[in-house]
TrEMBL record:
Protein name, per record: Lens intrinsic membrane protein 2.1
Protein species of origin: Parambassis ranga (Indian glassy fish)
One annotated GO molecular function: structural constituent of eye lens
Predominant subcellular localization, coarse grouping: membrane
Taxonomic lineage: Eukaryota, Metazoa, Chordata, Craniata, Vertebrata
Keyword Transmembrane set for record: yes
Localisation per UniProt entry: Membrane
Entry-linked Pfam families: PMP22_Claudin
GO cellular component assignments: plasma membrane
Keyword Metal-binding part of the UniProt annotation: no
Coiled-coil regions listed: none
Membrane topology: Multi-pass membrane protein
Similarity field: Belongs to the PMP-22/EMP/MP20 family.
Length: 173
């Protein structure tokens, strides 16, 4: 049980760090315009030597930001509850912290998946038709890696929950 919880905490911690890096950096997409490479993130777009904030409220960027921030919060709360389950913190006896942490990691995974899907769909639809020389960059790729890590942290915590529940349910009969 503890090895699953340790693996879940490791994946969740790494996933949360990658979520922070992905959300905060400006390399979601790179493109070439008039012989200069430019890049943009969720908060700013950058031309050679200078970055500018996204002044307009662009719906897909707002949705992606919101989903990424909610995913960060769910993952962070899941890590706190996961640590409490790991050290047997017992302020809530009727509250299974292992199960709650697993659910929070799955919620985090779902939210970051929604963020990545919204960004991918709109970017391919918009830039794919208008510009020929663009590509997704490393911040975007890190976002997809965090989807996988938060998913596996949820899997690990659900496995730990099942291992914890099976002996208890066998002795209750």
């Amino acid at each position: 049980m503890y090895s699953f919880m340790g693996g879940g905490l490791f994946c969740a911690g790494m996933g949360n760090i990658l979520l922070i890096v992905s959300t905060a950096t400006d390399y979601w997409m790179q493109y070439r315009q008039s012989s200069n490479y430019m890049h943009q993130g969720l908060w700013r777009y950058c031309m050679p030597g200078k970055c500018f904030p996204h002044n307009d409220s662009i719906a897909h960027l707002d949705a992606t930001r919101a989903f990424m921030i909610l995913s960060l919060l769910a993952c962070f709360i899941g890590i706190i509850i996961g640590i409490m389950a790991f050290i047997h913190y017992s302020s809530f006896d009727r509250f299974d912290k292992t199960f709650a942490a697993g659910i929070l990691f799955f919620i985090s995974c779902f939210l970051v998946f929604l963020a990545m899907a919204v960004y991918t769909g709109v970017t391919i639809n918009y830039y794919g038709k208008r510009y020929g020389n663009w590509r997704f960059s490393w911040s975007y790729i890190i976002g997809w890696v965090s989807v996988v890590l938060t998913f596996f942290s949820g899997i690990f915590y659900m496995c730990a929950y099942r291992m914890h529940e099976c002996p208890r349910s066998a002795t209750s009969h």
